[in-house]
Amino acid sequence: MRKLFILLFLFQIVFFGCKNDNIQNKKAGKFLVDNLVSSQNTNVKFNVFIENSGSMDGYISQPSEFKDVIRSFTSDIPTYFNSNPGFYFVNSNGTCEALPKNTTPDYSKFITDLSPANSKLTCNPGSNSSIDNIIDLCTKDMTNKVSIIFSDCVLSYKGTKEDGAKSAEANIKMFMSKKIKTENLSTIVIKFNSKFKGKYYNESNGGKAIQIPTVINRPFYALVFGESKTLNYLLSRVNFKKYSGYELSYTLLSNNKNSSPNSIITYENKKGSFEFVKPASQMKVVKAETKKATSEFQFSINSDFRNLPFCDDYLMDIKNYSVNENFKLKVIEKIDNTNRYSHLLTFYTNDLKQVSNLTLGIKYAIPEWVKNTGSDIDDNPMDTAQQKQTFGFNRLMMGVSEAYIANNDSLQFKIPISINKSGSGNSSSSKFPWWIFIIVAIILGLFIYLKNKM
After folding, report:
1. CB 49 within 8 A of CB 149
2. Which range marks the domain in which residue 232 is found?
3. What distance in Å separates the CA atoms of residue 104 and residue 82, rounded to the nearest whole number?
4. Selected residue with higher pLDDT from 59 and 17
5. How many distinct structural domains can be found in the chain?
6. Helix, strand and coil percent figures for the chain, each rounded to 5
7. How confident is the model over 1-13, as pLDDT tens digits?
8. For residue 322, what is the enclosing H or E element?
9. Which residue, 195, 196, 192, is CA-closest to 244?
10. Exposed e or buried b for every residue in 160-178, given b needs 16+ CB within 10 A?
11. CA distance 218 to 154
12. Same structural domain for residues 98 and 184?
């Protein structure tokens, strides 16, 4: 009987092993979520730069969303990171301390009092400021730093109109390519809208000033630069979507060659039937069959995007993803924060092949909102369509995007998934390995037979 007890005990270990693994995975997942922020590098230095060229006066001539966003950000950094950000004005001539040194910074009062006159007292912008020069100035020696530039991002070269914007695009592509290589620099671009009143400089007409007599709305941007890990550290606490005037975002990652978010196959949202190779993180679907009487097949994966510096709106937009092999990404859903995975992604096809090797990723191509925001004509700032656009913004982002494409893989990250129909090879699956039960049963049978024979 002692031998029988030992055999039964071993059987229980085998039978419940998979179940215990799942329980441990859930515990481990919750541990990862609970400790996501605490494991980050806490020595990051944050620097805030406000462009103070003449084209920015319209945002600070009255209370505005522009002021609200800077006020929110400069209060969030000391609140969540226990660190006061560096605070600067910037233009093509250089950077200047916006607040006196050796004082306790009162960012909120400074921003409330900010006006076209006092924005130029300590940092004269001169006659013209170009955003490509400004970006270059603010992104030097970026190890363990985050630089955030608040600007209208008008791509102006005085008197050169559209041709100047093209030259700026070329300059941006060259110096950003160098920074991506030497500084491992990633970029987040966030579009806001704000009240605006004052002079608007019509760049498609050589920078001619147009007086705006009433309050209108115009875009402005936060350009956020840093290593991917420091940008992710920032997004782990700061939710830009809650800021006044938030519209959309765009992220470009550097050094992505080994980037693959943790993922598993699931049975959620399925159409047809399939099994998956264990552990589910192998990302192998086997014995795939279409839904009866149809050609439809659908499956889902859980992925954890929390270690990547993307804002929610960008991750939730299907148009930003790439997937091959006659499959399409059908649905993206957020998962509860207590789970070890952040998003559920569902794939669909009506042309299931015997073997498919999928690669899912986010594209480097600039999103539609960037293309729609950029314009080469800004001669009527009172026009409702032009109020949503920025001269040369698409060219600015094209230069940045091309620099990343030239220095990285085609996708910002990759999740490989294999799908095999029945009889096409690997048949290992998620089902319980009954052969173990059969072997144990045979051993027990032999044990009982030998005992009775004795």
Report:
1. yes
2. 45-257+365-407
3. 14
4. 59
5. 2
6. 35, 30, 35
7. 555 444 444 445 4
8. strand 321-322
9. 192
10. ebbebbbbbbebbbebbbe
11. 11
12. yes
- Same domain for 22 and 155: no
Q: Is residue 198 one of the residues assigned to a domain?
A: yes
Nearest to 374 by CA among 57, 50, 59, 154: 154
pLDDT tens for residues 152-175? 999 876 656 667 778 888 889 998
Q: At what angle do helices 393-407 and 161-183 cross, to 10 degrees?
A: 30
Length of the chain, please?
454
Please state the pTM of the whole predicted model: 0.84
Q: CB-based burial of residue 103 (10 Å sphere; 0-12 exposed, 13-18 middle, 19+ buried)?
A: exposed
What DSSP character marks residue 55? G
Closest C-alpha among 85, 103, 93, 105 to residue 52: 93
Residue type, 138: C
DSSP letters, 258-301, are T----EEEEEEEEESEEEEPSSGGG-EEEEEEPPTTS--EEEEE
Q: Which two tokens stand for residue 126?
A: 């001169």
Task: Verify cis geometry, omega within 30 degrees of 0, for the bond prior to 279.
Answer: yes
Same domain, 80 and 201: yes
Tokens, residue 241: 């979507």
| One domain for residues 123 and 15 | no
Residue 414's CB is within 10 A of a number of other CB atoms, namely 18
